[in-house]
Amino acid sequence: MRYFYFPGCTLETKAVGFNRSAKDAAGALGVELVTLPEWNCCGATFPLSTDNVLDLAGPARNLVSTAEAGGDTLAVACATCFNVLRRTNHFLRNNPETLEKLNAFLERPQPYAGQVEVRHLLDIFVHDIGLEAIRQCAVPGLRGLRAAAYYGCMLLRPAAEIALDDPERPDIMDQLLAALGAEVVDYPHRGECCGAYLTVKSPEASMPMSYRILSAAERAGAHVLATACPLCQFNLDWLQARLRQQYASYRPLPVLYFTQLMGLAFGLDTSGYGFEQHYVDPRPVLTQAGVLGEVKAP
Amino acid sequence: MPAKTKAHRIGLFVCHCGLNIAGTVDIPQVLDAFKDAPAVLVALDYKYMCSEPGQELIRRKIAEEKLDGIVVAACSPTMHEATFRRNAESAGLNPYRVEIANIREQVSWVHAKDPDAATRKAIEVIRTIIEKVRYDEELLPFTLPVVRRALVIGGGIAGIQAALDIAEAGFPVLLVEREAQLGGRMAQLSGTYLNFESAGDLLAQKLDALRARPEITVLTESEVESLNGYVGNFTVRIRRRGEDQVQEASVGAIVVATGFDLYPMKQLPEYGAGAVPDVISGLEMEALLRPDGPTGGRVLRPSDGRPPKEVVFVQCAGSRDPEHAMPYCSKICCMYTAKQARLFCRQSPDGQAYVFYIDIRSGGKGAEEFVQAAMEEERVLYLRGKVSKIFRDGDKVIVWGADTLSGQQVEIAADLVVLATAVVPRADARDLAQRLRVGTDAHGFFNEAHPKLRPVESLTAGIYLAGAAQGPKDIPETLSQASAAAAKVLSLFSRHELVQEPTIAWVDPELCSACQLCVPACPYEARRPHPWKPLVTVNAALCQGCGACATVCPNKASKLRNYTPEQVLAMVDVLFAPAKAQEGA
């Protein structure tokens, strides 16, 4: 199976471990991710926060490029890029006038008609490859590791446009982790916001939000938290040093990309996964659980 | 016998409807347009034609001018056609030679911004209706016998009350209940608001009365499988669960009283999706409060059987939520939540009850006082705001909500949460509605014929509605509607026969080729091939005069009385070539 793949800015810079592990895990499952030629930034929070049609040109250009390259699907790993691209596509499909304007602006040989499907890797892995194939591929698997799936906002909302899973009781990442052999723990805050950009300006506001998620997962017995969003990963990971100061009983919890866990489960070479760059080093926990061979001295 | 001569002495009566019509349509100009129209002897206007002086004017003109047809240009025929026809009949005119030209709903109201166009359209509408009345036959209504026995579907308190009222007037009633026991939802309730009287005791009184009535036949574990026939003469087939044989019965009227369900908690994932044992529905709370319930009336947690200290009640769980669930207010929850909170506090003096609400809707006698008493006497804490999330944390249930009065987010570690889940129609209400050929609304509640003027009738003659099957309502409101439905049945039963409108279809045997296209076209199953002649026949009692058969008939053999192809074409002719048609006449 072959899909055009949109890495996005963060996966090329701060979250290289996510990018590396996403491609590795896909490869192990027989999924070829072809990086979209000349992809550009999805626009992050800007395109969908104003009424300016031109702001949509950025994300739309990626959709047009996919169509021009002969693709019908654009696979995305980053939850925010996925959210922006998918919602832009949804908007264009439902606003023919805007689509016409954008086509006129982009001046491509073929006008875009909304034919590309923007899909998250979770969706492709679980629905195109299937849980059974993943289970078979999961050697040595994640036996002994208790994992909590964390979805955040971008993978789930707005539900009607994203349509990846039930925003109140998401399950797709839980299913994937279970297929990898992990023991998936139940906790109530899978879809609560981590605080997002508040961390930049007012960490005192995002701290209780991240704390709520991390402490609930930890109390539910999780060894690690799995995510698909670089911003969630950063918040939940970076804030833990402060949380330790603020809350006496706080116990740190490594935060990993779900694809890093796939690489571990599939027995791949994880040396490029950037574990050493995590603020809360996941290696001791992974080793203790028996899913990571050797620990290099930090 | 229908007269074959065309009406040639026609009166036109134009109503102002105050300023409803006259404010937009130029009445003198309209009258002027018909001053010299052929066959129109009289063209008059009046402020309110439906008033007694207006009717009197029509009667006088019928007599003076020996009119043989009249057109009343006024409001929609659904408003006053019957009035004007009755009036004309009393003056000796055949009522089917009275036609309404609707120049209010279809002219003045919709073209209020363009009076010139409205006036022109009014003239055109009247012109076509005059042409229609010229071809109208003088029809005679016919009568059908009434089977004076009623069917009540649903053995809850609504059905019980309707059956009792009908039986007390001396008519036999067939009461069909799906479950093994009568009582419906009321049998599941604890104390009732406003005075905590036991629902079980109240129900028992009604059941005693029911058992004392020999006129009532109760069929439990039974369901209505199909219905045929028409008002005064339905044939119903009833199947008893687990049995092959089907019972057939003739009834003249039907009361639908199938009650309600609650919105499934499974569909409220933000409130735990029904997977948290100590998050229960309002009806489950009733079971805990009921003296004859599983806990003997003590509120105990389903998870561990311990008495809860902190109980959170969440109103509008699935109600008033157009984005996710039901858009409407379920109407009964404000009151029963207050009642449940009070009952809980009375049995747990050290307990605390919280109620999250959007608004308190406590209309009517004593209701507001009852809710106030919950706050003042039982110290129930009312928090105005929605609950965003409910989840389990150890042996507590955490409730996240907003208190919009203090502007604070609220988190309560509760022992028990009661969701006032939305009142919804029975899951299979739509199926039953289809079998009975009555309408339902967008959600599946049975539709009343008119929300204000005919609130207990369905649009199908002879089928009436009672209780929450028609929409959320509490016990006294349900009983009122049930008694009203019974009164409708009894007024039907007070007659031995019913007058049927003669404006129905007939088949011209000379033209019919028995192709039978009309048989499936008829939505009322009123058409049947003749047993031996090459012909299709019409069951006049079933025919509603919709005209579907006339439309499909390739030979124009199937015709609607006073809506014949000749008539319609003549109307079209005067509409598009008025000068030519007038010449021809």
Give a structural overview.
- The complex is a heterodimer of chains A (298) and B (585).
- In chain A, the strands form two sheets. In chain A, strands 2-1-3-4 form a four-stranded parallel sheet, sandwiched between helices.
- Chain A is 46% helix and 10% strand.
- Chain A folds into two domains: 2-121, Glutathione S-transferase Yfyf (Class Pi), Chain A, domain 2 (Up-down Bundle); 140-289, 3-Layer(aba) Sandwich (Rossmann fold), CATH 3.40.50.11810.
- Chain A is an alpha/beta fold and 298 residues long.
- Chain A has helices at 9-12, 16-28, 57-68, 79-94, 96-106, 121-129, 131-137, 159-162, 172-179, 198-201, 203-219, 230-238, 240-246, 258-265, 283-289; strands at residues 2-6, 32-35, 73-76, 117-120, 146-149, 183-184, 224-227, 255-257.
- The radius of gyration of chain A is 19 Å and the shape is globular.
- In chain A, α3 crosses α4 (79-94), α6 packs across α7 (131-137) and α6 (121-129) crosses α9.
- With 585 residues, chain B is an alpha/beta fold.
- Chain B has three domains: 1-140, Rossmann fold; 150-259 and 426-497, FAD/NAD(P)-binding domain (3-Layer(bba) Sandwich), CATH 3.50.50; 265-289 and 297-411, FAD/NAD(P)-binding domain, CATH 3.50.50.
- Chain B is elongated, with a radius of gyration of 30 Å.
- In chain B, 42% of the residues are buried.
- Classes of the chains: A alpha/beta (298), B alpha/beta (585).
Order of helices and strands of chain A: EHHEHEHHEHHEHHEHHEHHEHH
Portion in beta strands of chain A:
5-15%
Largest sheet of chain B: 5 strands, parallel
Cα-atom Rg of chain A, whole angstroms? 19 Å
Major sheet: arrangement of strands of chain B: 8-7-6-12-23
